[in-house]
Amino acid sequence: MKLDKNKRMGAMVKILSDHPNRIYTLKFFGELFGTAKSTVSEDIEEMAEAFENLGLGCLETIAGASGGVRLRPKLTQKDLLSFILDLCDRLSSPERVLPGGFLYRADLLYLPEIAQKIGEIMAFEFENTKPDFVITVETKGIPVAMMTARALDCPLVIARRNNEVTEGSSVSINYVSASSNRLQTMSLSRRAVKQGQKGLIIDDFMRGGGTAKGMSELLSEFDIEIAGVGVVITTSFPKEKLIKEYKALIELKEVSENSEVSRFSPARWVLER
Amino acid sequence: MKLDKNKRMGAMVKILSDHPNRIYTLKFFGELFGTAKSTVSEDIEEMAEAFENLGLGCLETIAGASGGVRLRPKLTQKDLLSFILDLCDRLSSPERVLPGGFLYRADLLYLPEIAQKIGEIMAFEFENTKPDFVITVETKGIPVAMMTARALDCPLVIARRNNEVTEGSSVSINYVSASSNRLQTMSLSRRAVKQGQKGLIIDDFMRGGGTAKGMSELLSEFDIEIAGVGVVITTSFPKEKLIKEYKALIELKEVSENSEVSRFSPARWVLER
To answer: Which domain holds residue A252?
Structure first.
């Protein structure tokens, strides 16, 4: 099918947007549109500039045999900051404070728009670590981890709290979660990962870091390297976490059950970038 | 910023693709691109035809005060069938058969590309029921439910197996799952839904229909209407499910643990559409 330039642009952007970070060859688009590869290449160059200006992401041409074009999600500093500030604002509404000083946050983390944007931020921050998969432990981190995997164009792996009959043989570890102060179990299906891969750990919340440490121990049982640890919210206290290197988007400064007050702020790197 | 037609097309498609089904006003695009609304309208019309021809979805103009433009995910019959057939093929590989005749399927359902496509199919099938949210019960259905919510541009709600401190007060019900033949519990946070809403139930697997029935009972505790029930895989037996109306994408015809054979086929409506 021969398409004019306007339509080529629209169709190409649709395909690239549906699978962020996936590399499509110029040949693929050339054949789809009935044009020369050089024409596709020119289209991309022209579009890339407009995308950059509008803050719609990074249209990148990759040279070489495995080359082609991909659309890397990339927020402008302004959009990143206003998104995180807005999220802090919504998180700190008084009715979110629960008995025991816990915070209701599932509604926000399950909103596709928010999960998708967080996933795109995580993907941008960790893309250079080249993970083979994203891993989380059920349940609240799943939507964000799913969207991170989508933005990285890699599989999602979910560690379970219990052994499941539908997961086949699995490896389990015990760990102590600081939030619950209880011994907990997490297990991972042997079929889910392969020795020698790299896994990116994503979770919604970190207090002591026990859960993230648990996931990293679980992965080391499979000889899997940790590409990085990304969490949406971390608490200011305890300052020392069980895991040394991690990237959080938001810091929970304090929460008081009695006064129904919680204070959130963007992580320092978000402010300083 | 004044943009030429090519770039307008690309930028508009990016924004529409990132939030399928969301209605953007012509005014929004007009202001973003520094053009008249009538120009935006012409751009859309031109693009819609190309999208239809390429099977990239349905670019729809909505008239009236709350009008604008949206991109409805829509697979062509050919793409739908080839996607489902390919999924059947991958599901039926012998190493997926587990002790007890269970099937390993998490890897496929957690692949962003597959979950996204299933979500788009579900959204297209249930969009006319106008759900306020998508609901699933943890865990394996979450990625697909998330992508359905994304494609419908509505929130995701997750029922839990246990009461969680981070969910606030919640309502719990007991139900019998045919798969496990056990009494199980599911609970839903009071904060997650509002009386009078409509919920679309999405799950990955249905055998007897106990889990879907459980979800529908849980929703009726909140005075919430069921918009519909969508599952990825249903079993041919038992033929009578606890839930009468549901839409499945794939039928599991038989599974034999000894011979490591499982047979899947597309649901009849997929073949007959």
So the answer is: 77-272
- Closest residue in B to A57 (Cα–Cα): B14
Contact A18 B116 (CB under 8 A): yes
Residue B39 has pLDDT above 70, yes or no: yes
Q: Which of A72, A105, A130 is the last residue of a domain?
A: A72
Tell me the shortest Cα–Cα distance from B39 to chain A, in angstroms. 14
Torsion sign over Cα A9, B83, B112, A195? negative
How confident is residue A25, by pLDDT bands cut at 50, 70 and 90? very high
**Do residues A25 and A82 both lie within one domain?**
no
From A152, which residue of chain B is nearest by alpha-carbon distance? B112
Pair (B139, B264) in one structural domain: yes
Q: Do A143 and B146 touch (CB under 8 A)?
A: yes
Flag whether residue A5 sits within 8 Å of chain B, measured between CB atoms: yes
CA distance B267 to chain A (A): 22
Asked if this assembly's ipTM is beyond 0.90, the reply is yes
Read off the amino acid at residue B84.
I
Give pTM, 2 decimals: 0.97
pLDDT for position B3: 85
Number of domains into which chain A is organized: 2
Which positions 47-106 of A are in contact with B (Cβ < 8 Å)? 47, 50-51, 53-54, 56-57, 98-100, 102-106
